[in-house]
Structures are given as structure tokens and as C-alpha cells.
Amino acid sequence: MAPAEQQVGPGRSDLGHGGDRPGPAPDERPAPPPLHVLETTSSTQDAAREMLRDGAATPFAVHTLDQRGGRGRLGRPWRTPPGGGLALTLARTSSLRPDRRSWYPLVVGLGVLEALAGTAELGLKWPNDLLTPDGRKLGGILLEAEGQEHLLVGVGLNLRGPIVLEDPSALPPAWLHGEGGVAHGHADAGPEGEAAGAEDDREGALAAALAARIEDELRLLDVHEGDAVASGQHSRYSMACLTLGCGVRFHAATVADPAADSSAGAGTAVRIDADGGLVLRTPDGDERSVSAGDIRHLRTTSTSLPDHQEIHP
């Protein structure tokens, strides 16, 4: 199905904007990426990849509320009941060499927070899971390269619940709207038709804001040649990262069974290094930097649920 293209306007979204980020003023920013809205798709990542291969100019974004075969990190599925979640992929051309892109996953998280500023109280689990202050997962991010120059940035957010988990012992995820939603003023109101139309407008505005703010953050990092300290994004990310100060378990992302990973361990997250790695202080007092892997926050009480969550899309 050919996507219906929606050109989004420049400037601040009605979802709120942080406003204190270094970089160009809103009226000096390039036009935001055009937004292609799909009624349904198996994966926005795959749809955007196909558009790139067909010669679409970057940057652009693909968005749906009905994703049937999405995926996350380590190949984990993203399940999206129609209308239950938002899936978006931003396709862009990078000016950085691959070895200068270590901060890309982290600053994408900052872009998502910017798009949701004023909507809900949220933070980031390293490197870029979107969490509520009590540790429930609202969304996730997936970055995939397409050739040497192109990047596909996938974002999945839970819009509505409740969400039924395959693992009943898992920490319940969060969602934005409806009963139990974390968005400020989340309750739906008005006649059914009116509510449905307002909801479409709201989710379209959110998708447009996500694409624009993520592209802003990536462009800012590109301008500073991947140096997040110089761009100010290192300090902003450190302030937003809920992992810092937490006890964590970690293992390599390529190892399916953590028990079989000789590099696995536990420690306290103390800071983010200049390359975006998570610096951990181990029980013996040593420090090690983790640049890639699976991080789980340790709970402080024996009655707490495991930090394993499933999201859609």
C-alpha cells in the first residue's frame, strides 16, 4: 500500500518542547522530515528500507498505529494491537563515519524525551529505553544501518493498555492514554466519533514531533562530529538517565543465555563515559565501561518484580 504523505510544519509541537537544548533556534531549523502515514505495515523499519532502496530522499519518516511484525533489540518482537501502539521509523543520511556514531542510540532517546516533554514524567534506561520513574517501560528504540551512509531509527511507544504479558512475573509496562495511562490528562472524553478523530490528530502530532526532535538531536551530534560532550548532549543525557546510581546486571547482547556469558556481572552505574558507554563500579571496587549489552536494573526489595518488560509496538 502506498503511504499517504503528510508534510509536517516546523517549530514546536503541541506536545511541548524542552527549549533549553543548544543548537539552532526553532525558526532556524531545517524543515522537519516529511511523514508518510501507513494504515498498516509489517514493520516500519522494512517499509522505510524499501523506500530508501526505491530512491526516496532523506530525511523522511514512516508511521503507523498498526504494525504486525515489528522487532526490537536482539530480534525481540514488538507486538502492536491496532491502535495500541505507535511505530515510527526515521530514515536519514549520516555525515559521520560508523566509528563516530556511538552516541547515536543515546541521543535518539533524548529526541524522544523532547517530543514527549510536558506529556508525561519520563527518563531513560541506558542506552535508550523509555521508562517511568517507577521503572515501567513505555517504549524502545532500534537503530539499523542501511549501507554505509543511511540510518534507520525505529521507535515504538505503548499508547493504550492494558497490555497482556506472556510472562506474568514481568514488571508491567506503561502506556500513555486511557485508564492507567501515564500521560497528563490521559482520560478520553467526548462522543465516540469525536474522540476517535481527536485521537488520530493527537497521534499524528506525536509522530511528527518524534521525527522532528530525533532528527534535531542527530543533526546536532553530526555538527559536532559525534562529540556529545562538545554538543552538550552528554550532560543532558546524564541528567535524564535513570540507570545512573542503580545496581545493574549486565551481559553481552550477543549471548542469548546470560548464565553462559563469561563477561556477565553486576555493579553500580556511576557515569556515562565520553563515548556513551556505561561505567560500572563492580563489587570489588574496579570500574568497567560497557559499550554494548543487555542491562537490567536490580530491585531493592525481595518483593519487587524482575526488570523484564514487553512493549508494543
Automatic annotation (TrEMBL):
GO cellular component, one term: cytoplasm
Residue span, BPL/LPL catalytic domain: 18-214
Nucleotide-binding is among the record's keywords: yes
Matching Gene3D superfamilies: 2.30.30.100, Bira Bifunctional Protein, Domain 2 (3.30.930.10)
One Gene Ontology molecular-function label: biotin--[biotin carboxyl-carrier protein] ligase activity
Basic and acidic residues compositional bias, start-end: 14-30, 283-297
UniProt KW keywords: ATP-binding, Biotin, Ligase, Nucleotide-binding
A Pfam family per the record: BPL_C
SUPFAM superfamilies, per the entry: C-terminal domain of transcriptional repressors (SSF50037), Class II aaRS and biotin synthetases (SSF55681)
Enzyme Commission numbers on file: 6.3.4.15
Highest taxon of source: Bacteria
Region (Disordered): 1-81, 278-313
NCBIfam families given in the database record: birA_ligase
Name of the molecule in the record: biotin--[biotin carboxyl-carrier protein] ligase
Organism: Brachybacterium endophyticum
